[in-house]
Amino acid sequence: MRPLLRLIALLCLCLGYALPAQAAVTITFWSHELGNSFPHAFFTLRGVPDAGGAPVDANYGFTAKSVSPALLMGPVSGMLDIAKPTYINGSDAQFSVVMTDAQYTQVLKLVDAWSEGKPDSVYRLGDHNCAHFVKEAARIVGLSGLDQPKLMKKPRSYLKAVGAANVGRVIPVGLHGKEYLAGLSPIVPSATTGAVIATSSSPIPSYPRSTVPPAQSAALPR
Q1: Which whole-number Å values give the CA distances from 126 to 36, 42, 145, 152, in the listed order?
Q2: Which residues are 59's β-sheet partners?
Q3: pTM for the whole structure
Q4: Are 41 and 29 in contact (CB under 8 A)?
Q5: What are the CB-based long-range contacts (under 8 Å, 24+) for 117-120?
Q6: Digit-coded pLDDT (tens) for 150-207
Q7: HSE on the CB side for 73, CA within 13 Å?
Q8: Residue 187 forms beta bridges with which residues?
Q9: Which residue in 66, 103, 59, 54 sits closest to 83, CA to CA?
Q10: Residue 32: which of 93, 76, 85, 106 has the closest Cα?
Q11: CA geometry: angle at 35 spanning 97 and 115, to 5°?
C-alpha cells in the first residue's frame, strides 16, 4: 500500500496538485551558498507530533562560536545556529522527510547533544561541522548514502548527493527559500480532532512518513 501511496504522491507532484497535509513533523534539509557568509547546511522542523501538542516551527544548524584563523588550526567552540527568516529566504530547500514521533524525539536529542557546552559542541572544520550535524539528522530519519567524505565541506553538493541516494524515500523540493516558504500556509488547529496540523497550498505533496525504524543518534568519535 505504501508504494502505491508514494506513486500517487509523485503523480500529484507532476500534475501540480497538493495532497492533504498530515499531522506530523516534517524535517526539511537546507543549504546556503557563499554570499555574505560561509556555505552552510541546516534543517527546519515543521508540523505537529502525531501524539498532539504544541505546533513545531523551528530550525537548527551547527557552527563555530566565532570565525577566526583558529578554525584552520584545530577544534574550537561550537554552538547551535538558529537562522533568521532573511537567511532562510536566501537559502535552498533541498528535500524533506515526514517523521514518526520517535524520529522527531531523536532529532531533538541530537539538537540537545550538540548544544553549546555539551560534549558534541566542539566544532572541527574537517570532521564535525554543519554538514556532519545534518548528516546525523538524516541518519536518524533512516536515510542512506550519508558517507560522502569529499563533500563534507560542500553543504549543497552533500545534500544533493544524499537526496539522489534516497529517491523514493525523500520528498524532493529543490526550491529557493523564499519561493518554498511562500507556498506554506500557517499551522492551524484541526476542526475535527482538535490537533494542530500544518496545511499547505504548495504543489509539494505530503508523502507517507518514514517507515524506517528510528535510529539512535550515533556517538561518533569527535
Answers
A1: 22, 17, 19, 8
A2: 44
A3: 0.77
A4: yes
A5: 119/222, 120/222
A6: 999 999 999 999 999 999 999 999 999 999 999 987 876 544 444 444 444 333 333 4
A7: 6
A8: 198
A9: 59
A10: 93
A11: 50
The per-residue pLDDT for range 20-30, each reduced to its tens digit, is 344 599 999 99
Residues in the chain: 222
DSSP assignment of 109-147 equals HHHHHTSTTSGGGEEBTTTBSHHHHHHHHHHHTT-----
Q: What is the DSSP string of the chain?
A: -HHHHHHHHHHHHHHT--PPPPSS-EEEEEEE-SSSS--EEEEEEEE--TT--S-EEEEEEEEESS-SGGGGTS-EEEEEE---HHHHHTSEEEEEEEPPHHHHHHHHHHHHHTSTTSGGGEEBTTTBSHHHHHHHHHHHTT------GGGTT-HHHHHHHHHHHTTTTSEEEEEEHHHHHHTEEEEEE-TTT--EEEEE-SSPPPPPPP-SPPPP------
Give the integer Cα–Cα distance in Å for 126 and 149: 10
β-pairing, 171-176 vs 92-98, is antiparallel
